[in-house]
Specification:
globular, Aminopeptidase, 330 residues, alpha/beta, 34% helix
Length: 330
């Protein structure tokens, strides 16, 4: 997620959003080597496999995945290899969608599964997350690498896992694009570039659904994640209906701090004027390490991530297969 300006940070301190000690998760939170199975869906997502992927993306050797850096290039290679392994086709001639920013070259990684319906396959659902991070951060001890595990390796891994699940669990009527963005931390640069490119190509984008910081669970909420721009569309209402559970809800802080405009969904909203929203489980009280060198893979709750991804899959599946465009702006 893009860094909040100093006024927001001071406001957080003033309001006393104390982070919970319950975020001190480690790899010990994985209770089993077996896939976590949701009672509400026929999907099996392995917490162990998620840990393996996220540990690669948030490794010290990637040096915080700054846009245009060698470490971000290694992350891009890893995402591409995962797409190839799971038969996710490149949307363009290659998986890489290059753009220039601050004399650097960033690369969005863009894959696609084509829909099966002769008509609806020309409509697209875009599932996105950003795989870049800030690179180096304020030193703590001997550590100055901002690994970006929650922000946003967690969202990136979620999109990778959803791509794998959709690839192996039958065809869908609509096409789905999997977009892993670079340049988010520099001002949504990658998503602005891709959204503009797709609009100029005349793409019919139905919904853009963005995953932003889902590595730790929310506490004492009736829903599993909040949706930014909640009141702007009926996405949460329809998604919960599709899922037969309260997956998405409203977080007042998300509206107060205008988080709708602070992640890559906003680029698609401005270009296409469609329901383009982000979901997150970071609620300002449940994680201490936003843009911090201790945002490490060992802090993530992989059982939560596996269960959450299983919960969102039925709603995504329904979005891809409804006969009409039921999700609309208010």
């Amino acid at each position: 997620m893009r860094k909040f300006d100093i006024n927001y940070c001071l406001l957080f301190l003033f309001l006393g959003f104390a982070s919970c000690n319950t975020t001190q998760k480690s790899s010990e939170t994985i209770k089993t080597e077996q896939p976590v199975v949701s009672a509400t869906a026929n999907y099996q997502v392995s917490a162990v496999a998620l840990k393996e992927k996220l540990s690669v993306l948030a490794a010290d050797s990637l040096m915080g995945r700054a846009t245009g850096s060698k470490g971000e290039g290694i992350a891009a290679d890893y995402i591409e290899a995962n797409f190839i392994k799971n038969n996710i086709q490149p949307y363009f001639e290659t998986y890489r969608d290059p753009f220039e920013v601050d004399s650097l070259t960033g690369y969005n990684i863009v894959g696609v599964i084509e829909g099966s319906d002769p008509v609806l396959k020309d409509q697209y659902v875009v599932l996105g997350a950003h795989y870049d991070h800030i690179g180096m951060g304020k030193k703590v001890g001997n550590d100055s690498i901002a690994n970006g595990a929650n922000d946003d390796a967690s969202g990136t891994v979620a999109v990778m896992e959803i791509a794998e699940q959709l690839s192996k669990n039958g065809s869908n009527k609509r096409s789905v694009i999997f977009a892993l963005f670079s340049g988010e931390e520099l001002g949504l640069k990658g998503s602005k570039h891709l959204a503009s490119r797709l609009r100029k190509d005349g793409l019919d984008v139905y919904v853009m659904f963005n995953f932003e910081m889902i590595g730790v669970p929310m506490k004492d909420k009736s829903y599993q994640a909040y949706l930014t721009g909640f009141e702007r569309s009926n996405l949460a209402e329809k998604f919960n209906e599709y899922s037969n559970e309260e997956v998405l809800g409203f977080l007042p802080q998300a509206k107060n701090y205008n988080l709708f405009m602070r992640s890559d969904n906003y680029s698609f909203f401005t270009e296409f004027n469609i329901p383009a929203q982000a979901l997150s489980t970071f609620d300002f009280t449940n994680y201490d390490y936003y843009h911090h060198v201790l945002d490490e893979s060992s802090q993530m709750d992989y059982d939560h991530m596996a269960s959450f991804i299983e919960s969102v899959l039925p709603g995504i599946k329904h979005m891809l297969n409804s006969s009409e465009k039921e999700i609309k702006l208010n």
